[in-house]
Amino acid sequence: MQYYPVPDLQRPLVDKFYRAHRSSMRGKGEATLWVAKDGEIVGALNLTPMAGGHWLTGVFVAPSRRRAGVAGHMINAALGEMEGPVWLFCDPELSGFYQRLGFVATEHLPAELTGRLMRYRQTKTLIALVHQR
Questions:
Q1: Which residues contact 101 (CB under 8 A, 6 or more apart)?
Q2: For residue 66, what is the domain's CATH number?
Q3: Cα–Cα distance list, 125 to 6, 14, 24, 71, 80 (Å)
Q4: Which domain holds residue 50?
Q5: Tens-digit pLDDT profile for residues 66-125
Q6: CA angle, residues 120, 90, 61, in degrees to nearest 5
Q7: Which member of 23, 48, 107, 128 lies 3.0 to 4.6 Å from 31 by CB, making a disulfide possible if both were Cys?
Q8: 77-109: b or e for each residue (b if 16 or more CB lie within 10 Å)?
Q9: pLDDT, tens digit, for every residue of 109-128?
Q10: Number of domains in the chain
Q11: 3-state class of 74 per DSSP?
């Protein structure tokens, strides 16, 4: 299994991966897109630069490859390349997974993320986590 940031010319392949699995996730603007690849893309995530750190979104693993460590290895590979804090929002049921990767609950977010979290919480139950580098 390989874990690596996708070159700009291959960004459309990540969106194709998300669409093939009927995921609403997409590669976002200035985000660095990471993939897990085993002959084909089996996982992807986005890391968007933000306020001295990064925002982790779009973590998705093909259903046939879940519970095999793909997401954890992909996130760890991506975090190994980052400096500063990395924030994410997740469903409370996923907090244990992220905590095993070194994330901790936080209410201290950059202003842009605070606003987003407030909007998202109008329709979803989410918690904010941070990984300090």
A1: 72, 75, 76, 79, 131
A2: 3.40.630.30
A3: 31, 27, 18, 22, 29
A4: 2-131
A5: 988 999 999 999 999 788 999 999 999 999 999 999 999 998 999 999 999 999 899 999
A6: 120
A7: 48
A8: bbbeebeebbbbbbeeebeeebeeeebeeeeeb
A9: 999 999 999 998 999 999 99
A10: 1
A11: helix
